[in-house]
Specification:
By secondary structure, the chain is mainly alpha-helical. It has helices spanning 11-24, 40-49, 59-71, 78-83, 85-96, 112-124, 127-148, 159-162, 168-182, and strands at 33-36, 54-57. One of its GO terms (biological process) is DNA transposition.
Length: 191
């Protein structure tokens, strides 16, 4: 895990940080999966500096984005989801989409698109709330998460592969202790 205090959130700033990290941490970047939020400048910088690494969007940030969109004034759906159990179920179904594979190689395991279509079919069965979900599902969920971000970017189906023990933590720990040895000691002010 790498923490940095930056002066902004531009792709250029991220590229500078990642080039520095790449020079300081000698890792097998072809075996590294980098997990981030869905900030486009950050994603572009990762693809530029770490082309051999895989990138994975963070499930927490996916859920956070969905909730923020529901709470936005333009959506106005938050109160509906809180008050209506059918709307709440649809909301939970959207949050569960990343648990499906981005693509399906066989007919037994549905893909994320199959899951999206199942949600649409469920919404159509409930005409009293269907009109409220139209823009949310087609413009936001499909338009942003399926077309712009692509399902491969935020599926968590393969997370077990990502969580295998990797050496990055040891490398960061060594870097941290190396930095401690470089800093002057000022008595017991840290106690």
């Amino acid at each position: 895990m790498v923490y940095a205090i930056l002066t902004g959130k531009t792709e250029e700033i991220y590229v500078g940080l990642f080039k520095y990290v790449r020079n300081v941490l000698p890792l097998q970047y072809d075996k590294l999966t980098i997990i981030t939020d869905f900030e486009l400048g950050l994603i572009n910088a990762i693809r530029l500096v770490f082309p051999e690494s895989s990138h994975q969007g963070c499930y927490f940030h996916y859920c956070q984005s969905i909730v923020r969109h529901l709470r936005s004034k333009e959506s106005g759906m938050y109160n509906l989801v809180k008050a209506n159990p059918i709307a709440a179920r649809i909301f939970r179904m959207v949050l569960a989409l990343p648990y499906l594979p981005p693509n399906s190689n066989n007919n037994r395991i549905p893909s994320m698109l199959d899951g999206f279509n199942s949600i649409i079919m469920y919404i159509v069965q409930h005409t009293e709330i269907a009109e409220y979900f139209h823009d949310f599902m087609y413009q936001y969920v499909f338009g942003y998460w399926f077309v712009r971000m692509r399902p491969e970017a935020y599926t968590i189906l393969y997370l077990t592969r990502i969580l295998e023990p990797i050496t990055i933590w040891r490398a960061i720990t060594q870097l941290f202790y190396g930095l401690l040895n470089l800093t002057p000691k000022y008595g017991s002010s840290w106690v």
